[in-house]
Amino acid sequence: MSYYQIDGIRFWLGLLLFVTLLGALGLGWVVQSLLVIFLLLLLAPILFILALQIWLRTRVVTASCPVCGQVSTAIKEQSFVCPACGEPLEVRQGQFVRLTPPGTIDVEVQTVD
Ligand SMILES: [Zn+2]
Q1: Model confidence, pTM
Q2: 76 alpha carbon to ligand 1 midpoint, in Å?
Q3: Which of 9, 35, 81, 87 could serve as a FRET partner for 3 with CA atoms 20 to 30 Å apart?
Q4: Does residue 19 sit in the same domain as residue 52?
């Protein structure tokens, strides 16, 4: 057994003794609250990163520009300008579409029999 292993065992034994002592003194709640705080501190950044990743996955769309084909990333429901050609674009159903100029009415083509 190396020196470091013995040192590690001594640390854990000391911690165990400390926890047992606190428990014997009726201070088990101190250990529990410390453990909870420790876990929260440990989990908070992980949860934050996970939430951010989920948010990005649902909010960010990667697609290609319908005008020049440049692949770029945009946030949903936000209009933006293509970094390559400067075309004003919008995210619609996971795809980039050209912004329809205001006042333009979409006309459905109807065939008359
Ligand atoms: Zn473009």
Answers
A1: 0.44
A2: 17
A3: 35
A4: yes
